[in-house]
Specification:
Number of helices: 5
Number of strands: 11
Distance between the termini: 95 Å
Structural class: alpha+beta
CATH class of one domain: Mainly Beta
Helix content: 10-25%
Shape: globular
Largest sheet: 9 strands, mixed, barrel
Order of helices and strands: HHEEEHHEEEEEEEEH
């Protein structure tokens, strides 16, 4: 009897060891994004293992995922791909009857260097070789022979801006880029679209703006990004932006405006949903002799990991802004 009990005990111990071994070899059966993530794998944001607890979201600035927020890929509330073994939900074609513009988008051109046509040229930073040379680019202006119709005073101001570049460029100081420059800087931006107002979030300097779709009011104060009132013109999102200050530039070439600037933007989703045809009409009677228009495609970032990362650039501009105030050694 004692021998049989001993044999049974040994069998139980061996069976448990086999079960633990097989469990350790099997991948996690949990569905959604958690199944793909390796335990302890470093994240892009922290470099530490696992998912960072309480990481701030681009939409709220608070920790975690905002409950009920529409996702960039689907426009539906909640967390995408929730549940065991469930495949990611298909992207919605329309939200509240309008084209789904949710997603991370980016321009691919040289407009941030100069919205007008320009040849490749060197900069004052010859020690950097070709790294900081200006690449050639075509004009994104579709009228006025591809040029900006400056007044004589406006043209003189541009020449002054160019003479002081790059320290005179608001981009070098990490100021908000204004519009339409925020759209074609070499950083992605995200559109968060629901049934009402629409949020634009820009990676550069953690800039954002709200497009007011129903409560159309005047800007309470002039600002870098202006005040955006939007409406749907058929399947095109039309936004009128005014209330700007006169401090932002259109590019690194010193092209500029006054506080009388009005930008009328049009976002039209192309067939297939992977790029937006973007157009902006600029009016400023203090700076331009007539309105002018830019046009370009914006491409949807389709990689599964597409997201906005933090580019809080203030710390990189402190020496430029305040270096002259440092106490010099005696």
């Amino acid at each position: 009897m004692r021998s049989r009990l001993a044999d049974a005990f040994i069998a139980i111990v061996l069976g448990g060891a086999v079960t633990l071994t097989l469990s350790a070899q099997q991948p996690s059966r949990q569905g959604g994004a958690a199944a793909a993530a390796q335990a302890g794998a470093p994240t892009a944001r922290t470099g530490r293992g696992g998912v960072e607890a309480g990481a701030p979201t681009a939409r709220t600035g608070r920790g975690g995922v905002e409950a009920g927020a529409p996702t960039a890929r689907t426009g539906r509330s909640g967390v995408e791909g929730r549940g065991r073994g469930r495949a990611p939900a298909a992207r919605l074609d329309r939200i509240a009857g309008h084209p789904n513009l949710n997603g991370v988008w980016q321009a691919i051109n040289t407009a941030n260097w100069n919205v007008e046509s320009h040849s490749a040229s060197a900069t004052a930073f010859s020690q950097l070789g070709a790294i900081f040379a200006i690449p050639a680019g075509q004009s994104v202006i579709i009228d006025n022979n591809g040029t900006i119709p400056y007044t004589p005073e406006g043209l003189k101001k541009r020449q002054e801006n160019q003479a002081g570049w790059p320290t005179s460029d608001p981009e070098a100081k990490c100021y908000m880029p204004g519009l339409p420059r925020a759209t074609y800087m070499p950083y992605p931006f995200q559109i968060v679209q629901g049934a009402k107002d629409i949020l634009f979030i820009y990676e550069y300097a953690s800039t954002n703006r709200t497009v007011h779709m129903t409560n159309h009011t005047e800007s309470p104060v002039d600002s870098w990004m202006g005040w955006s009132n939007g409406r749907w013109d058929g399947d095109t999102l039309a936004i009128e932006v005014n209330g700007f200050n006169d401090l932002s530039w259109f590019d690194r070439a010193g092209n500029h405006h006054s506080d009388a600037l009005t930008v009328t933007e049009r976002y039209s989703l192309a067939p297939g949903g992977n790029h937006i045809n973007y157009e902006a009409r600029l009016e400023d009677p203090k700076t331009f002799t007539r309105p002018w228009t830019i046009r370009m495609p914006l491409y949807r970032r389709r990689e599964p990991s597409a997201q906005l990362l933090e580019y809080k650039c203030v710390e990189f501009s402190e020496e430029l802004l305040y270096g002259g105030l440092k106490k010099k050694p005696e």
